């Protein structure tokens, strides 16, 4: 059985049309993907759950200073928040997450897979199997 942690939280979209409306989201970490975290949003209507996977180190470092390039960047935000910017071909969204939730989630993930021990948790055969399906 794979070790994992999942934290439910509420987030806001400070650059969206309704910046003070809270949305449900989840931060997930699975030890079988030791370098990644997932930011997931529940389905809307009949759609599917929206998931963004990015580096755990990016989320950790971004709590303290702006970091990241490309599709995902993370930066400290105002009033105890962490800002995760997700970019895609059809636009971008800035997600504001409570920093205490991010910190607690990361502590859980580092208890499951300590920093520097990620390669010991990789199952290369399983990764290859996923890629070749």
Shape designation: globular
Head-to-tail CA distance between termini: 22 Å
User: H/E series, N to C?
Assistant: EEEEHEEEHH
Largest sheet: 4 strands, antiparallel
Strand arrangement within the widest β-sheet reads 1-2-3-4
Oligomeric form: single chain
Question: What's the tally of helices?
Answer: 3
List low-pLDDT spans: none
Indicate the radius of gyration in whole angstroms: 15 Å
Helix vs. strand class? alpha+beta
As a percent range, the share of helical residues equals 10-25%
The mean pLDDT is 88
Strand content: 35-45%
Describe this structure in words.
The chain has 133 residues and is of the alpha+beta class. It is 23% helix and 37% strand. The chain has 3 helices and 7 strands. It has helices at residues 56-62, 99-112, 124-132; strands spanning 4-11, 23-30, 36-41, 50-55, 72-76, 81-88, 91-98. It has a 4-stranded antiparallel β-sheet. A 3-stranded antiparallel β-sheet has the order 5-6-7. Strand 6 and strand 7 (91-98) form a beta hairpin. The longest helix has 14 residues, at 99-112. It is globular. The chain starts with a strand and ends with a helix. 20% of the residues are buried. The model has no long low-confidence stretch (mean pLDDT 88).
